[in-house]
Amino acid sequence: MPSKTQQPSQTTGKSLVKDSVDKMFQIASREEVDQKIARCIYGNGIAFNVVRSPLWADMVSSILNAPKGYKSPNYEKVRTALLDKEHKKVQQSLTPLMQDWSTMGSLLFLMTGANIAELLLKAIDYVGLSNVVQVMTDNASNCKAAGAIIQRKHAHIFWSGCMARTLNLLMKDIAKSEDSLLSFVDESYKKGKAIVKYIKNHSSRQYLFKTFSALELLKAKKTRFGHNFIVLQRLVKERPSLMSMTLSKQWDNLRRSSSSQEQHDIVLKTIMDDDFWKKSKQVLKFTKNIYKMLRFSNSDKAVIGEVYEQMDTMLGNIKDSLSDDLTIYDLVQQYVVARWDKMNIPLHCLAYVLVPKYYTNSWLSQPAPGGVSRKKPQCDKEVQTGYLQAIETIVVDQNEASLIRHQISDFVSNKGVFAQPQAMKDRATMTALSWWHMYGGAAPELFSLAIKVLSQSVNTSCAERCWSTYSYIHNVKRNKLNVDRAEKLVFVHYNHRLLTKYRNDYEDFNNWDAYPEDANIEEDFTTIEQRDNVSLLDSEEDAENNFDDVGVPSLALTVTASLSCPPPTPTIQESSSIEKIERALRRLEKARGKKQKK
Q1: Beta bridge mates, 136
Q2: Among residues 400, 455, 405, which one has the least CA distance to residue 103?
Q3: Residue 104 pLDDT level (bands cut at 50, 70, 90)
Q4: Distance between CA 167 and CA 526 in Å, rounded?
Q5: In the chain, what percentage of residues exceed pLDDT 90?
Q6: CA-based nearest residue to 590, from 97, 159, 244
Q7: DSSP conformational letter for 107
Q8: Which ranges of 26-139 would DSSP assign to H, the alpha helix?
Q9: DSSP for residue 504
């Protein structure tokens, strides 16, 4: 009886404490504000990723500190006066970066279009003739012609094509080879695409595959670099799931209801063909090295100093992977060398010579891939010819060029001002630009040249990103935007993303733009592999299906599966899918005459 009389008072006490806490921290009011913000996002179709933006944090902070009774700007003010004011502010914020052009050097990007040379010449005048080191364009013939015009008019400026695109063309060259020894490459690609197309183009087949696999098959997309490799890599990874699916009763039922039974049989034959999988693995074995190099070069980081050595490493890795078939290696090497001869310029050789780590004993003592001994960059005849030509091109003053050559001699020999113990020790651990900023001041002429050269890019992804920005801002639904206003919006939008990287609190917002629409990836290759090529997937649906190394599906898998066919509850679906996979695997092992391992 006493406990019953005390229970109401205890409940009342808890509610009083809860009310006091709510009142103290205004929890109800905060939740109401959160709900209204979320409602605005939902109602206007704003991407959820916006709340990660540092600009969003700035906006919320400004509203909190606004005068009492503040009202948001109206429609006309946002599209006119405030846009013009923000455009000017962004221009002012970019001034410190533009001042670095004289030190870091600048690189002009241009893809395709009419009067390319004329547009480039105007851009060079705007940036400053002495600040431009190279002009990079697409690899199209009209762009090459424009580059030749620029080089004739300004002899100190280099023209170069996009390295990522060149490597992508290399993969296509190998696939389209007319040599019978390489015919298996194109054959594997075509058969693999046929499997993916047959499964992905029908909801019933796609849903059936999802019951056997936690991963998606990836469609080929020509706008993605290395798309053939990505498609085939995922296909080989999902071979057990594909074989389990084709041995199921549901697969036989799909054939009966299919209008293209012949295609169904072809796909079944391909999946059960051991020769197809053997050839696909062989294709991946050597094209993976090209794909790694492609991803390495398709980065916003300044990697020009490592390009030459990485190309040699790529060729050595290809030789190691094809050690059992040197005839195929010789053919692949011919294609690699042919493309390298087209994209290699003296600037790459000079950048290679200026990287400090390539003169350390820790690097030189390690054997290079392919069984070749490493040597200092200037000892290579092609590199020596290239870097001397680059110095003559960039440095007009002959006296200064002679002084720089003497300073390079001290640099590569660890003599003179470069003989400091700290400088020699840090060559192996610091990046090239960091090392030059730390120790290059004692040789000012070479220091200035090294910073300009090593700051250059080797791809045109930055230019392509503007296309995505423009299509995001000026689309069918916003086609009433005039040209001037659209250009201002693109300028403000793109450069704000650039300026946020220089904020002191940028690390707090480093995931706000983690999955951009373009194919450019900033992370190193290890991170990319861990993300399982999530940034190269061809749709939002694929991007949501992110998996870890052991293949554990995310929650998005259940949501995606429900789009084509409503499944049971997640628990029942998961258990039934596991049972189906286990039954299919047992049938597969029995068909092969093997015993199931427990």
Answers
A1: 109, 160
A2: 455
A3: low
A4: 20
A5: 31
A6: 244
A7: E
A8: 27-43, 54-64, 75-79, 81-93, 95-99, 101-104, 116-127
A9: T
Q: In the prediction, which pLDDT does 569 show?
A: 36
- Residue 207 pairs in a beta bridge with none
Dihedral (Cα; 523, 529, 535, 540), 10-degree rounding:
-140
Residue 32 structure tokens: 């109401």
Q: Does 17 have pLDDT greater than 60?
A: no
* DSSP SS3 for 415: coil
Whole-prediction pTM value? Answer: 0.69
Residues 6+ apart with CB under 8 A from 580: 211, 212, 244, 248
Rg (CA), the chain: 30
Q: What is the pLDDT of residue 94?
A: 78
Structure tokens at 560: 């995606």
Q: Are 519 and 298 in contact (CB under 8 A)?
A: yes
Q: Is 74 helix (H, G, I), strand (E, B) or coil?
A: coil
Q: Residue 283 class from Cβ within 10 Å (0-12 exposed, 13-18 middle, 19+ buried)?
A: buried
- Tokens representing residue 353 in the block: 């010579």
> 148, 443 in Cβ contact below 8 A?
no
Q: Which residues pair with 107 in a beta bridge?
A: 134
Give how far Cα 504 sits from Cα of 7, 63, 507, Å.
54, 21, 8
Q: Mind listing the pLDDT tens digit for each residue in 360-396?
A: 999 999 888 888 889 999 999 999 999 999 999 999 8
Taking a C-beta distance cutoff of 8 angstroms, is the pair 232, 270 a contact?
Answer: no
CA torsion 155-158-159-161 (nearest 10°) is 170
pLDDT in tens, 213-252: 888 888 877 667 888 898 999 999 999 999 999 999 888 8
Quote the CA–CA distance of 577 and 551 in Å, as a whole number: 15
Among 140, 117, 174, 161, CA closest to 318: 174
Residue 89 token pair:
């502010």
Distance CA 161, CA 345 (A): 10
Q: Rounded to the nearest 5 degrees, what angle is found at the Cα of 193, between the Cα atoms of 221 and 172? A: 60
- Read off the tokens for 155: 């002899």
- Tokens 């940034």 appear where? 535
Beta bridge partners of 132: 106
For residues 78 and 483, is the Cβ–Cβ distance under 8 A? Answer: no
Q: Per the structure block, which two tokens stand in for 496?
A: 């704000």
